[in-house]
Amino acid sequence: MATGQTDPQRRERIITATLDLIADDGVAGVSHRKIATRAGVPLGSMTYHFSGIEELLREAFTGFAQHVEVVFALHLGGADTTDQAREAVTDLIHTLSEGPRRDLVLAQELYTLAARHVEYRSLTQAWMRRSRQLLEQHFDADTARQLDALIEGMTLHRALDDAPHDRALTCLAVARLTAAA
Asked: Structural domain boundaries of the chain?
């Protein structure tokens, strides 16, 4: 394997391997050795690129949060009318709930960390603020806050239910919540 200087993708591979390992085994299953093995890098690369496992976890989850923000922006950015924004929210819920199981697991792992550790709480708070800002391009602040919670809840329910609700129910929920908008 090439050295860190001639392997510019090493740091990113370590971050990706960290997220993949968390998705498979949870945060509790993460170790420098397991990440290095999964990333295909020497164990010494871990401390060369990151001061410790906490820095690596924060950076990995920061990147994951940014990824989800991009998904939100892609869905909501094309809406010009309130009806289009409602449709975009519905699409977003179905995209997130039907998307990679990895993303769902990572979101839940991040929420669990945020419930226990303030530094992750600030990361999730920033993520929620950005989600609401994107929603506020189409809805008032209170409605955006409620929609953000609806998106999270319906995504989780659809993803974990053995008989997930259909698109019509999602449309109805979004329409009811945004009726005054």
From this structure: 1-50, 58-177
